[in-house]
């Protein structure tokens, strides 16, 4: 693959070229030349756009490819297509499969089936056997087989002793524990954020307390074990405050927020669109603003798509019967850029979807540098466009964003000697 990228602004806070407009020549997958201007003497494919930007390839730290077991919703192949279409050169897949990714053989299945694909796929192993929250899974064996972290995904670890043992053991094998914070005894039966909107439309609410109480407990367990923990998809102002204090106290904790929780609040639910039923739920405007501030001051380290494919039978139902989740890989950048365009600089956004996830997971961050393999995302932060069904590469279509006008669009990715243009 040989291409010439013309007049592209480099967005990479770790690079001396950050903010500069350059031409980039890629030959056989290697960056061979970066200059202010390069003549296309060999007639290579040229990539140009009005306000073209390039950054090291993005990574999504939380997506579900449903393979094995639920391939009718998504499989590894379709998930990779969706990821590439959304600008990702790498993605971490969660273990909510059947069987769960709780042993060496399941991790090897994902690694072997995706090793030659344009998008790098990193499996996250189950923290407990079958994600049941009772017995620790084979953490060490899974890590040796390619698991980059361990989590029971959206099943919170109910047993504090189990979490304590997991953090202690993970420390011994230099592994990362990812936790989802929700006290089910408080949130049980809840359909949306508990607040004025839930009262007005008559749906049982999920209090912010359900997240914050579990987060407080998990932070105390972390403090006791002196381990390392990542808290996924925080959604409330109280959670941001707890994490800010934890970081000030130098606890070894990082966190992420789902893209849609930065753009949409619970007032969008008056139409009972089941595509807006997610967990954690869409919160209040106050929570939404607190999450943005948390990104800006680096309390929150990572933005994730929280890509959750669901088929028609599980999603096109009455709101209270529908499953949680929306697909998000293909809209993540557009959602985040639209939500934060005037508040957070592009290089800081890219840190949240490129540098920080890799640093947290211990994965090497790609470089836009002569002599390096090209692992690049191309995007235009100023383009206004409307998302349509034809843009969806995922098997599932459960998104509320069809017909939504966004600011910021992915142009394509370059990885493993391939260029994939976004739809």
What would you say this structure looks like, in words?
With 423 residues, the chain is an alpha/beta fold. The protein folds into 2 domains: 104 residues, Urease, subunit C, domain 1 (Roll); 305 residues, TIM Barrel (Alpha-Beta Barrel), CATH 3.20.20. The chain contains 13 helices and 18 strands. The strands form 4 sheets. Strands 1, 2, 3, 4, 5, 16, 17 and 18 form an 8-stranded mixed sheet that branches. The protein is globular. It starts with a strand and ends with a strand. The mean pLDDT is 96.
> Biggest β-sheet, characterized?
8 strands, mixed
What gyration radius follows from the Cα positions, in whole Å? 21 Å
Helical content class: 25-40%
Sheet/helix structural class: alpha/beta
Question: How many domain modules?
Answer: 2
Total beta-strand segments: 18
Distance between the ends: 20 Å
Number of helices: 13
CATH fold type of the largest domain: TIM Barrel
Any idea what the shape is?
A: globular
If classified by CATH, what would the architecture of the largest domain be? Alpha-Beta Barrel
Query: Quick one: CATH class of the largest domain?
Result: Alpha Beta
Low-confidence stretches: none
In short:
This protein is 30% helix and 22% strand. The strands form four sheets. Strands 1, 2, 3, 4, 5, 16, 17 and 18 form an eight-stranded mixed sheet that branches. Strands 9-10-13-14-15 form a five-stranded parallel sheet. With 423 residues, the protein is α/β, with parallel strands linked by helices.
